[in-house]
Amino acid sequence: MARLNTIADAMSAIKNASDGGKPSVIIEPASKLIGSMLGIMQESGYIGEFEYVEDGRGGQFNVGLVGRINRCGAITPRFSATADEMEGWENRYLPAKGFGLLIISTSQGVMSHEQARRAGIGGELLGFVY
């Protein structure tokens, strides 16, 4: 069966493994977008090391978990947000100001909402984690 939303599948796999106390999780199929999202989560300390493994069927990511994730998920539909609107989306998806992050696809690549706000650019909301 075809996967319709690989970002949502990846985020739910991370959340379920984290809730279950697992030390790692395998995310498949792999994509550059999911790899970029994992990089943002790693920079912020929500996940540990991750590596890409080619398995002949689209590849997979082996992600080490550190147990800091309370909740994460994909934002569907992928709403567009300007730099000025970022605070409203932060209030909608994150529990408190300065706690957690939104992952955004911008014209300059995938970044957190804080990086996008500092750069003064908007983009499409992909997911959240806290």
Your description of this structure?
The protein has 130 residues and is of the alpha+beta class. It folds into 2 domains: 6-65, Ribosomal Protein S8, Chain: A, domain 1, CATH 3.30.1370; 72-129, Dna Ligase, domain 1. The protein is built from 4 helices and 8 strands, in the order H-E-H-E-E-E-E-H-E-E-H-E. The protein has helices spanning 6-19, 32-43, 86-93, 113-119, and strands at residues 24-27, 47-53, 60-65, 72-74, 80-81, 101-106, 109-112, 123-129. The strands form 2 sheets. Strands 4, 5, 6, 7 and 8 form a 5-stranded antiparallel beta sheet that branches. A hairpin with a 6-residue loop joins strand 2 and strand 3 (60-65). The longest helix is centred in the N-terminal third of the chain and has 14 residues, at 6-19. Part of the 30S ribosomal subunit. It comes from Methanofollis liminatans DSM 4140.
